């Protein structure tokens, strides 16, 4: 018997919604929310009823009876650090999403909306591999400053989805492989996956690892301290330099890797230097993850929007092909990844984890 699922992936100014039958997408839509509409609400949680109504109206438009759904799966938000997997939206998980225990973000609404719609029709609700998935080894947490342990915040949903996809396509299981997965989007995360766990990965939110279209990555700490106390910047302005206005944005005033590639093609020498540095830093991080895996790497996977660029694939293959063969899964199919997470639990392939 097939499983029909509603998938909810909220972003800051939109909510992506999809309905699946098993792994087959029946229909999807990105429901846009005008800035002036969002501005009416004092907090993320205040948007809940507004977004829920838009989702229900959309299902009605598509002649999809909400009672025909078997499961509701929402994007996981900024919860406490947890191992990867599919989690039932329990009362405790729901409370932490509402509180925003690690911050307020639109993704927090995913589990909340899933639970409310699921409860209304008497069906289960889940979240899958939120950005706070934390499977770091104890040794990987040590930063050099006891007050500042390393934290795991990365593209967990897509990294784990492509890792599982690779395993399935090659007749094995995720927990039998050592992989390096490189997700390249607005942020770039480079993860060492060992036997089903991401044992090391850079924190994409707070300034660690390679720079990216919007993030500065690791910067010289002493100079950053001087900048913080120079009196020229507020705390918020400094943070924006690290996350939002860093990387390509800082050097080339664009966060679009395609624009950077066009600049290089047109002979812009400075743009080429920055692009080369981008590939250089990604390769350096991946080399470090190969050391984490003791050189025993079954495959390197390139994913995220920037993996569509053949130049990116060629450059990274040139730098990293000696470590392991390279597979490319461009883009990030988050709705399918969420649907697959719910399906694994509904079919008994895996047990839902308890938060």
From TrEMBL:
Main location: cytoplasm
PROSITE patterns for this protein: ACETATE_KINASE_2
Enzyme Commission number(s): 2.7.2.7
Principal EC category: transferase
Entry superkingdom: Bacteria
Localization per Swiss-Prot or TrEMBL: Cytoplasm
Record flagged with keyword ATP-binding: yes
Keyword Zinc listed: no
GO molecular function list: butyrate kinase activity
SUPFAM superfamilies for this protein: Actin-like ATPase domain
Annotated keywords: ATP-binding, Cytoplasm, Kinase, Nucleotide-binding, Transferase
Catalyzed chemical reaction(s): butanoate + ATP = butanoyl phosphate + ADP
Similarity remark: Belongs to the acetokinase family.
Official protein name in the record: Probable butyrate kinase
Species of origin: Gemmiger gallinarum
Gene name for this UniProt entry: buk
